[in-house]
Amino acid sequence: MDQTFSIIKPDATKRNLTGSINSFIEKSGLRIIAQKRIKLSKDQAEKFYEIHSDKSFFSDLIEYMTSEPVVVQVLQGKNAVKKYREVMGATNPENADEGTIRKLFALNVQENSVHGSDSDENASKEIEFFFDEKEIVG
Ligand code: CMP
Fold first, then answer.
1. Where are the beta strands (DSSP E) in 19-135?
2. How far apart are CA 36 and CA 106, in angstroms?
3. What is the CB < 6 Å shell around ligand 1?
4. Of all atoms in ligand 1, which is nearest to the CA of residue 52?
5. In this structure, are strands 70-76 and 31-38 parallel, antiparallel, or unpaired?
């Protein structure tokens, strides 16, 4: 079965939306097979978002991602990466389809409530970054 990596971001944990977002995920048919609530360190956030280090929004992104706890998750299901990206909606909530997590909950392009991997290769890397094999119990 395919897997993807998800983060419920600070704007969402702060507004007590973890359960509402998990409900969206589960209704879509994806299964939450691992999750933990953590506070990202600056070092972790910088490493995780290294690919965006040359972007103008990088320092704001790091400040935001370390501002409140996040919930990191492993989601499992058929075509999990593609499926979760559909459930999340577009990065910018202004462009997100009706019925998606970001359309309903995201505040703006940065505080966009959730992260999901963009490929199977990145999903494996991102899962490994946050979870030990023994933490993923199915
Ligand atoms: P995410 O899918 O986690 O990937 C990178 C993150 O950077 C993105 O969600 C947003 O939180 C943030 N981001 C992307 N584009 C912008 C932008 N144009 N301005 C500010 N933040 C952005």
1. 31-38, 70-76, 114-116
2. 21
3. 52, 57, 61, 91, 109-110, 112, 115
4. 5
5. antiparallel
Angle between the 80-88 and 120-130 helix axes, to the nearest 10 degrees?
A: 80
How many angstroms is it from 126 CA to the middle of ligand 1?
16
User: Cβ neighbours of residue 23 under 8 Å, at least 6 residues apart?
Assistant: none
Interval between CA 10 and ligand 1 midpoint (Å):
13
pLDDT in tens, 58-90: 999 999 999 999 999 999 999 999 999 999 999
Task: Specify the residue with its C-alpha closest to ligand 1, atom 21.
Answer: 110
CA distance 109 to 124: 25
Mean pLDDT score across all residues of the chain: 98
Give the residue among 97, 96, 76 at the shortest CA–CA distance from 25: 76
- E runs forming strands in the chain: 3-8, 31-38, 70-76, 114-116
pTM: 0.98
- Catalytic sites, residue numbers: 115
